[in-house]
Amino acid sequence: MFDTLTDRFDAILTRLRGRGRLGDAEVSEVLREIRVALLEADVNLAVAQDLIERIRLRCSGAELAKYLTPAQQVIKVVNEELTATLGGEALKITYASKPPTVVLLAGLQGSGKTTASAKLAQWFRQQGRHPYLIGADLQRPAAVEQLRVLGAEINVGVFSEPTDPVTVSRRGLAEAERLGRDVVIVDTAGRLAIDRELMDEVRRVSLTVHPDYTFFVVDAMTGQDAVQTAEAFHQALQLDGIILTKVDGDARGGAALSVKQVVGRPIAFLSTGERIADFEIFHPDRLASRILGMGDVLSLIEKAEREYDEEVAGQALERLQSGRFSLDDFLDQLRQIKKMGPLTGLLSMMPGIPKEMRDAKVDERDIGKVEAIICSMTALERADPSVLDGSRRLRIAHGSGTSTTEVNNLLRQFKEMQKMIRGVGPMAKLAGAGRPGNKAKSAKGNRKKVKGGRVTPSTKGLGPPR
Amino acid sequence: MALVIVLVVLVVVLLVSGGLVLSTRTRRRGSSLPGAGAPPVVGEKAPPASPSARSGPAIAPAAPVAAATVDAAPAEAESPALAEPLTRPALRDRLGRARGFLSGYLDGVRARKGVDEGTFEQLEEALILADVGITTTTRILNDLRAKVRSGAVSSSDSSALLEALQADLVSMFDGDVGTLAFGEGDGPTVWLFVGVNGVGKTTTIGKLALRETKAGGTVVLAAGDTFRAAAGEQLESWAERAGARTVRGADGADPSSVIFDAVQHAASRGARLVLADTAGRLHTKVNLMDELRKVRRVAERLPGQLTEVLLVLDATTGQNGVVQARQFTEAVGVTGIVLTKLDGTAKGGVVLAIRSELGLPIKLVGVGEGPADLVPFDPAEFVAALFG
Fold first, then answer.
1. How far apart are CA B386 and CA B388, in angstroms?
2. Which of A27, A181, A187, B259 is most solvent-facing, going by the fewest CB within 10 Å?
3. pTM of the model
4. Distance of residue B30 Cα from the nearest chain A Cα, in angstroms
5. B56 to chain A: nearest residue by CA?
């Protein structure tokens, strides 16, 4: 989502890195370019100006003269200010002392509230809660139906009736209490912030259910208007947080920066795909790093933890350490990675990937082809690709529905990769040294401790463990 | 394809040497930590056995649709009762409530007697806030500056400057009129609706269905959104209002086959028009765009005459609108744009960039959730509303 901001910063900051001293004039030029980058990314005009000014104050010629590498200092300042704008720390949900904890979702039409309601319900369930959904969108035809279908998918009860949103909310809440549910999520109809009647209505719903959390659901591709709308909803409802949706697109996501800054409430969650599982807590520090091309390794590892089979991962480590990585190994790992979602998404979370690679249009179908080709080989062929002569390659091409050219390409590329892996082996050994066997973990699962010795540049200073 | 190998290996190396192995050994069950190692996610469930390009539970954000209850509709010029003749509210009236803040800037400009760099800064701010985008704004204002320098526009009269700017913006639309084309031949005309999630495709179809049945034709709606929960029901409720038929498939069915069936059905009934809905999809998803390509290929088969592929765009969208327009056009050849939700505070200025960079005409504008809230695009009205 934030790709283009990253690219622009990449370009700007790469130019900066080479410089020794940076005078005020150079800094101004850089700030001008950063402003353009932010505006192109849909960051609200006022927010962009503010961010630039804060960076400027900390990057005057005199300030930078203190540093040996002023360019690094500028990068650091930009990162810090960006992180500050994005919100500092993640939102932590605290549950009501007297259940249920009530969550209210509001926002414009089409922002993704109904979907987010279901995702949120699933997320609460993963936290060990017993959620309940209230369908208070009586405006849009089949909205309640949609929520019921989703509720059935995730096995969460849905309450609604064709009365009016206030009554539905009240009765739904009572029903949730009766059923002993400890989290209630209220989905409301999309409405314009300037529609007085409808804003009154949602205010009344809020007064009826007394939400512990009111989330404003906003589409990541929203432009300059995000701020105005958010402000209006905030005034009407006292928002506690923001849920940003459709983050898996390539929208630049400036709305995220702006809304947080102007409303003063954190972005709580990100909706990152069409699966119900594609829902995560927002980490401002990670996103700031990502924008600056510093990668978001923690998110990547979390994703992997959810999807990667641990035995297969263990095998991979061994093979890498020994410097031997066969087609079989590759196939096993490929299958794991497939589970983690689109390759391009994973790439954007990796540090140090050059722009060309991140931008590369990876055709996800190619993954299928690669798999097919390898599967069309015999065990012998996979273990020792040197036996692959013309007729075998032809057979493989036919078996996998590809061409011999593609088979050849794959084999050639894989050989190159094997060479690289042999080089990685010793490194991986160092990294893995002394690790296996250390299974000690606190009850809360202090992730930072586990990764203790593994401090890569992108994990430094990424905020407190959750 | 070689790229895939490189990337996969990179990812594997990173993950594995990055301590993944240790982490997976300590995977928690039902942890209280947010986002931590969760029980198998629902998305892993086997997809419905169908050619639909998506797997997993069907979710996509809801598209806005008219009020089921009349009193929930916005207060302004409305025709809630369907029996009444459709009024075509002027764009300006619909945007009346929303104009406020932008006109503030322009009052500021007017207040300054002369034209100086400060004036241009204010204009730049106004245009950027309207989502025109910095690149397009810079180009527009540079052209204007050139006119002031050459004396074509007076440098002492800010009102004249504003008029000149308005005229420039209107001319960017090069005389677009918001008419939708019908086919010449015997078979039913087909209009295909595409776009990202939540923009208002289904609602727009509902409004159009009503408009066209009122105009005297038989309309068939194709429920080509086979992915989203209850999408078919949503479309059907609009069809009922309009007196149109809906052709649906099973959940998760191939959208192309649904649209094919709808066209066949329309042809056999002598219906004039098929409005084909599709599921919202992000243009970044290769497989979904492939699915859409196939939908288009099927939609243009005889007996149907595919005369319009309409990209529905939300007026609140920022610069990503240009990317959307570009990608959808590349995939399925968009013929025009429907700009929705213009009754809010968003100005929809991104259509200026779309028009100038891609040449795509704006055909229709959505100005509310009610069945009558759809008007043909009028450049002069749009620009005037932009400026208040």
1. 6
2. A27
3. 0.71
4. 6
5. A275
